[in-house]
Structure formats: structure tokens, C-alpha cells
Design brief:
The structure is a single chain. By secondary structure, this protein is α/β, with parallel strands linked by helices. It has a single domain (3-260), classed as 4-Layer Sandwich (Metallo-beta-lactamase, Chain A), CATH 3.60.15.10. Helices cover 21% and strands 26% of the residues. It is built from 7 helices and 17 strands. A 7-stranded mixed β-sheet has the order 8-5-4-3-2-1-17. Strands 9-10-13-14-15-16 form a 6-stranded mixed β-sheet. α6 (211-221) runs parallel beside α7. The longest helix is centred in the last third of the chain and has 12 residues, at 182-193. The chain is globular, with a radius of gyration of 17 Å. The termini are close together.
């Protein structure tokens, strides 16, 4: 069994305890692993209100955008290791505004061992950070980064990775933003761990995707999943389509949600 607790999301789902806060960002606890940290330090306050630990030995970053990395200082002093793709520390911009990790790798490494990887790696028993995702289906890039010549170029967000947890019922996939594309990420997880993905939770970055593409993704997911819990950057229009097309596995989550599967 795996337990996923949502510390930060764009909405609050739990009515109790009082005082939970949301922001544009994402952070979850997957068993004893912290996956992303939200935009500010609010995630750690939500953990405290939910009666969850505020210190985690292992932290994994889904990618290097501010809404997933901004809360790092609240968690780093107690952490022992942080896993991320090397490009999670690269500068990132959108419409001229900086949207990357607010903290340089050197600043983070002063508090915690930084482990960069592009291949799947086991970060805790049965919990894998999937590394760089091959992309045969359309992906969801956004913004710009800086190349070796110092020029701004389109950011494909190759640092995007997800977590996959091995269970007796198949893989539980937890996505931060899924810039690599949900179909690509599912197939990468299944190939890497030789097991079917049966549950998905987290951001799917479908907020700016046209309805026809969301319908194609619903076609792909139909019959595959026992649980589908999209959040964060999925977007309300895409969520409505997925809820209508996949009413059995669809579950709404937000800050305070706890899924055991």
C-alpha cells in the first residue's frame, strides 16, 4: 500500500483542519518521500496542521519551476538528500519573467546532498524518480531557458520527471506538472519498471490544451486506471472532460487529501 498526502495544490479539498492554505503550486508526501515543495513556505505549515511530519530525509523535485521549488528552504535543513534532473537548476523564463528555481544549486547543496540523474533511480523502497522522459506523444513545454552560448531558447523542460511507486496492484504514478506529457510519462514508467500504471495523481498540464487533445488522452486512459486524481495545472476544463469520460477512477483532490492505494 502507498499513502499520498497533498500538502500543496491550487485548491483546498479537506474541510478540516481549519487554516489550510492553497497557492499555485504542488507538494505531496509519498510514504516518507517529499515530492516538490510548493511556491512558498506554506506547504510546511499545511503539513503541521495536518499532523504530518515537517522533516523528510528524501526530497525529489519534479522540475525546476518556482511553484514546485520555492518552498525548499522550509524543508532543506532536516533533509539528507535531494534528487533532481540536472536541468532543474537551469534558468527558466516565460514572457520575460523568471519562473525557474529561486535557489542556485550551490545554495541548496550547502544544506543537503544534491543527487542529479537522468535515468530512473530508486529513492526509497519501491519508490522511483523516473528521470528524463522519452517523448513520442505530444508534450507540454512552456517558456524559455538559456543555452550554452547564453542565448534564450525554447525550454522543452527535459528536467520534468515523475515518481512511480511499485505496489502489488501495479504502479502508482505521481506527477508534478507532467510537462513531458501524461501518455509519454505513463509509457516511460511502465517500460522502466515493467509493470502497468494503475493510478495517477498530480499535475497533468492540460490547462492550455484543446478539448480534442484532452479527449484523445481520455481515450488512451480508458480502461487503464483504477484511480485518476488530476490536480494543480490540469485546468478545470480538462478536469471536467476527464471526470465525464472516466467517472469510475476519477477522484478530486487538493490540499489535505490523503489517498491510500
Amino acid at each position: 500500500m502507498v499513502r499520498v498526502s497533498v500538502l500543496m495544490d491550487d485548491r483546498i479539498e479537506a474541510m478540516r483542519p481549519r487554516g489550510l492554505q492553497s497557492e499555485h503550486g504542488f507538494s505531496v508526501v509519498v510514504d516518507d518521500v517529499l515530492f516538490d515543495t510548493g511556491q512558498t513556505g506554506v506547504a510546511v505549515e499545511n503539513a503541521r496542521r495536518l499532523g504530518l511530519p515537517t522533516a523528510y530525509d528524501t526530497v525529489v523535485l519534479s522540475h525546476g519551476h518556482y511553484d514546485h521549488t520555492g518552498g525548499l528552504p522550509s524543508f532543506l535543513p532536516a533533509a539528507e538528500r535531494l534528487y533532481a534532473h540536472p536541468e532543474a537548476f537551469a534558468p527558466k523564463f516565460r514572457d520575460g519573467e523568471y519562473i525557474g528555481n529561486p535557489y542556485r544549486r550551490e545554495r541548496i547543496a550547502a544544506d543537503v546532498e544534491v543527487i542529479t540523474h537522468t535515468e530512473p533511480i530508486e529513492v526509497a523502497p519501491d519508490v522511483y524518480a523516473l528521470g528524463e522522459v522519452p517523448r513520442s506523444y505530444p508534450d507540454n513545454p512552456t517558456g524559455e531557458t538559456v543555452d550554452e552560448a547564453g542565448e534564450r531558447v525554447t525550454d522543452r523542460i527535459l528536467d520534468d520527471q515523475s515518481l512511480a511507486v511499485e505496489t502489488d496492484e501495479g504502479l502508482f504514478l505521481i506527477c508534478g506538472c507532467c510537462h513531458a506529457g501524461l501518455r509519454n510519462t505513463i509509457e516511460h514508467a511502465e517500460a522502466a519498471l515493467d509493470s502497468p500504471v494503475r493510478a495517477v495523481l498530480g499535475g497533468t498540464h492540460l490547462g492550455a490544451v484543446d478539448a480534442a487533445t484532452v479527449q484523445e488522452i481520455a481515450d488512451y486512459l480508458e480502461g487503464r486506471l483504477d484511480l485518476l486524481a488530476p490536480s494543480h495545472c490540469t485546468g478545470p476544463a480538462a478536469e471536467r472532460i476527464l471526470a465525464d469520460r472516466l467517472p469510475g477512477p476519477f477522484t478530486q483532490v487538493g490540499v489535505g487529501s490523503e489517498i491510500e492505494w
